[in-house]
Design a protein that fits this description.
Layout: E1 16-22, E2 29-32, E3 37-39, E4 47-51, H1 52-65, H2 67-80, H3 82-95, H4 97-110, H5 112-131, H6 139-148, E5 165-168, E6 183-186, H7 188-194, H8 199-203
Antiparallel strand pairs: 1-2, 3-4, 5-6
Helix pairs in contact: 4-5
């Protein structure tokens, strides 16, 4: 019975600037160091026979040909190593405050409506935490409510303007939840008029 060939042993990477390696793609020759070649522990000198430039080109071609596959792979990798991703992102933002500031500014300019909704959600969360109310909601929940209400005030039915309010049907101060099923989108006048009143107290209307 033939023996199963053993797996190729790993090669310790040792820089060999005095030795030339040829890239099997572009055929160019460079010193056998990680400055020029991709590391691969199963290859001679611990280096892949592919230079960095060709490797980048190969990756770009793959991403362009398989966008959905790449997207799924990134999502799976993120969920598998979420803590590490978040730690690196936090460290990057702390070490690059100016880059972070400019990125936020660009996002605000490109998505003003999303930023506005996110600010309202954050404000509601802060109020809920202060009162220790249960439940939570997201920007997507608010966007869905606006859509299902046909961009009209939940109470009076008028067309919503940019100054719409995210109202708690049962106010947080009256024990209402901060979850999406206790929210409605209203005009400024209705929400300020309703205040902390329950719906039936304000307009003889049920939820």
């Amino acid at each position: 019975m033939d023996s199963v060939p053993s797996k190729r042993p790993k090669q310790l990477y040792v820089p060999r600037p005095d030795v030339e390696m040829q890239c099997f793609r572009c055929k160019a020759k460079y010193p056998a160091t990680s400055e020029w070649f991709v590391k691969n522990v199963f290859k001679k000198f611990g280096l892949e026979y592919c230079c960095h430039q060709c490797n980048r080109k190969k990756q770009q071609e793959y991403r362009a040909s398989n966008p959905e596959k790449v997207k799924d792979q990134k999502a799976a990798d993120y969920h598998k190593h979420k803590d590490a991703y978040l730690r690196r992102a936090t460290e990057y933002h702390q070490n690059n405050p100016e880059v972070n500031r400019l990125a936020k500014k660009r996002y605000s300019e490109n998505h003003p409506e999303r930023v506005k909704i996110a600010a309202r959600v954050a404000q509601s969360k802060r109020r809920s935490l202060k009162r220790t109310n249960a439940g939570s909601h997201t920007r997507a929940d608010v966007e869905l409510l606006i859509k299902t209400q046909n961009e009209k005030c939940w109470w009076c039915g008028c067309k919503l303007s940019d100054k719409y309010h995210v109202d708690h049907r049962v106010a947080l101060s009256r024990g209402g939840s901060n979850s999406a099923n206790n929210l409605c989108i209203t005009c400024e006048r209705c929400n300020l008029s309703k205040g902390k009143k329950l719906p039936h107290e304000w307009s003889n209307r049920l939820l």
